Amino acid sequence: MTLSPEPPATDLLEADFYAFQDLLTPAELKKALAVREFMEREVRPIADDYWERAECPVHLFKPYAQLGTIGSGWAETQGEETSAVFRGWVGMETARVDSSFCTFIGVSGGLAMTSIGIGGSAEQRETWLPPMAAGDVIGAFGLTEPLAGSDTAKGLRTTATRTGDTWVLDGAKRWIGNATFADVVVIWAKDTADDQVKGFLVRKGTPGFTATKIERKQSLRIVQNADIVLDGVRVDEADRLQGINSFRDVAKVLRITRDGVSWQALGTMIGAYEAAVAYTKQREQFGNPIASYQLIQDKLATAYGNVTASFAMCVRVAQLQDLGTQKDAHAAMAKAFVTTRMRETVALCREACGGNGITLDHGVARFFADAEAVYTFEGTKDMNQLIVGRAITGHAAFV
Q1: 28: which residues sit within 8 A by CB, 6+ positions away?
Q2: pTM of the prediction?
Q3: Is 12 a member of any domain?
Q4: What is the pLDDT of residue 78?
Q5: Vertex 232: Cα angle to 231 and 236 (nearest 5)
Q6: Which pLDDT belongs to residue 5?
Q7: Strand, helix or coil at 211?
């Protein structure tokens, strides 16, 4: 696929009220604008139809990857040095058009690649990260289980038993995005020998591995979430993530990807906000555009404030990541705060559009529905609040 000419580097996102875009380098801005242009040209025209049919435009994965933004934080894949602010910005630009598509990309380029980038050996990183960044390999991330969501640190039931140079995996996973078509799935399981969590790369077509699409979802419908069954799945020791020895190592992955969810939530609320502004400017009641009425302006101003505050938090947490001083509570506070503001914002935007706000035709309804999943995954608000609470008080209150 041939990309259209580069967009002008002067384009400013209207929702960026405090001009956080100025923090990007010229090279980063150029790439971010290329992502925006791709999403507007390739994804926006088809997003509603794919969402309504609950299908995933997998064919767009490689063209998106050709923008050169997937895996830009890893030495094995980045063509030039990039900041965490830039990587978050790319997620925001993607979610601003379609939060489902952002999740599809983020599962492979975020969760799966980060697992390999943090936990893989040098050989594993060199084997997997470049083709994943190029869009030749799609990844998935299997942590959540039917009976283990918030308590995965202690409640993981999937087991891994070593016999010689082979591991045998047994158990089940749920809500695993991309799993029905992924080339490789990172599966987290408890070692029966030491009761510690280990990570395994399960390749597509491995006997004993089945993934069944979860039907009847009303949020992130483009994302192909699956129930996974692992029945005596055999994985070579060479496909065990060599740097993962406990759940603490898994938490390192989640700290980074949780930042990404905050940026995704920001993009989701921006998408709803932009659609609501456009609608209220053209919708007339009582002889005037409804954007001219005080009550509508109050909703839009509140939404704008939420966007701006969330922007600031996302940017600062990303900067802390670059500085190497980011802690679990930093990422947890951002995820809890930004997704809560997102939930309020998409509701205000839906309300501003009246009855038309519940249809796909006016741009808000999809963001309104997708926000519920973004609010929940990568740790519920409650769990993230408790991470922050532990940092404040020194006491863990999870149970």
Answers
A1: 82, 83, 85, 86, 89
A2: 0.91
A3: no
A4: 67
A5: 130
A6: 40
A7: strand
Which of left, alpha, beta for 378 (phi over 0: left; psi -120 to 50: alpha)? left
- pLDDT score recorded for residue 79: 62
Residue 169 is predicted with a pLDDT of 98
CATH code for the domain in which residue 332 is found? 1.20.140.10
For residues 217 and 143, the answer to whether their CB atoms sit within 8 Å is no
Q: Is residue 277 part of a domain?
A: yes
d(CA 48, CA 364): 11
Can you give the pLDDT at residue 259?
A: 84
Beta-carbon neighbour count of residue 250 at 10 Å?
A: 23
- Has residue 74 been placed in a domain? yes
Last residue of a domain, one of 239, 261, 279: 239
| pLDDT score at 179 | 96
pLDDT for the residue 8: 40
Instruction: Report yes or no: 219 and 369 within 8 Å, Cβ to Cβ.
Output: yes
Same domain for 218 and 158? yes
Say how far apart CA 237 and CA 121 lie, in whole Å: 12
- CA–CA gap between residue 191 and residue 219 (Å, rounded): 34
Calculate the CA 299 to chain-centre distance: 27
* Token reading at 373: 């999943």
**Rounded Cα–Cα distance for residues 120 and 97 (Å):** 33
**Number of domains into which the chain is organized:** 3
Torsion sign, CA atoms 322, 325, 328, 330 = negative
| Residue 231, token pair as written in the block | 């029945």
Q: How open is the CA angle 208-213-218, to the nearest 5 degrees?
A: 155
- What is the token pair recorded at 192? 């029966």
Asked if residue 118 lies in contact with residue 249, where contact means CB atoms within 8 angstroms, the answer is yes
Query: What is the distance, to the nearest Å, from the Cα of residue 329 to the centroid of all Cα atoms in its chain?
Result: 19
pLDDT lower than 70: segments of the chain: 1-11, 78-80
